[in-house]
Amino acid sequence: MSSRLPLAGALRLGRPSDIWFKPALSVVAAVAPPNLALLALGRLDLAMYTMAGSLCALYAHNRPYAARARALAWVILGMLGGLATALLAASLTRSAVVLVAVGAVLAAVQKVLCDATRIGPPGNVVLTFISSAALFVPQSPDRIPGHLGLAAAAGAWAWLVGMAPGLLRPHGPERRATAAALNAVAAHAEAHVSGEDTAGTHGTAVIAVRAARQAVSSTTGTPLTFTHRALERLIVRAEVALAAPSDADPAPLRDWARQVRGNRPVPEVPHLSGVDSELAPNPGPLWHRLRPLAPLALRTALGCALAGYASLALGIGRPYWALVTAASLYQADLALTWGRGVQRVVGNLLGVLFFAALVPLAHTSEVALVLCCLALNFGAEALIGRNYWLGSVCVTPMALLITEFAGFQQPGPLITERIVDTLVGALVGLAAAVVVPHRKRVVRAERAGPRTLAATGSSRGRHPDQRTGNTTEGVRP
Prior knowledge:
By secondary structure, the protein is an all-alpha fold. It is about 65% helix and about 0% strand. It is built from 19 helices and no strands. The longest helix is centred in the C-terminal third of the chain and has 29 residues, at about 335-360. The two termini are about 30 Å apart. About 50% of the residues are buried.
């Protein structure tokens, strides 16, 4: 049991992403102007609605800008849809039992849509956090359009923040992915020649090559530039070297990787005759991708509903915390779900201690409150790539401080309720994962890339857009 459901492994820190600072700076740039504007107007109580739009800046940082524009637009629409449903439900009833049920259904829909569309980190939990919190804020129908307008305006600003780096480095994501693939394959070839254990380097290289292939392939539908064609030929070289590492020379691979980074011209390499260069396969209609996720939807809805009701039975005034905790757990199998549960509990408990130390400073003024939240936003994004629990140390006090935008509260009850809801949500969520079994995963390498990549064998790695931290996706509050 200890090997199947590890404890220490779930807390092991990974290496930070090469672009860890980009999402960290982006979320600050997206959150700061709306919050500071509300602060100047004396309406920080409306910050939850602008945060809904601003937090969309967390998504799609590894995607090329043409694909990022589409992905961010869909994320913003999805955020607005979930928020609108929550606000409408909150305006029609104050029954906590009904609102928890609505929140559980929304969480299940958000989970399967994020998984089916492979939107990547931070996945469904930011969407679920916003919609679940909105369910338990007193609402009236006449105020819904204004609140949605604030979220839409902040979402538009977040879209601009996410797209802005493309003005300076229009091919930055594709270049980074290709450079990472070349370096990973070079490391695998070096390990192969030296006789070292190549299991780890092989898996890393497969994931990196797959990520590069998907990055370049996601530009489909837009005119292919000279840069894209040059990157395509370099990826083919990486795939061939990965298929035959004993015949590969690591030196040119690393040299090409150095030249690809930045804005210098992409090195030209001859086209390899006889080697197919394929785009990543079309994932197929959304409906076909949703059908296999039915057990996941049931598991999420059941776990979130039971967690919310257990919190209500314990007299907790914010059952959505337990609901969101349960929604954050569900991964591709039970072992990963267990790992996420461990990370969630450890990170939240440490985060509560951090909140207790930080709250005297945050309570000195509303300006201090906003600045603390901005600093925690940056810290969460900077750390969560190392491991989910480490990022949660910043996410937890940030979520607690957001509840104080409408007015300062006594920290004691907040801390107690957060601890109880974390434990309840994790325990009930894990129980639901056991009751509703996971589908057996069948990994087909040929679906992840070209035939030359399939020849190297399947990988035990995770989706290339997903961050480190011993889990399948990075998520937040």
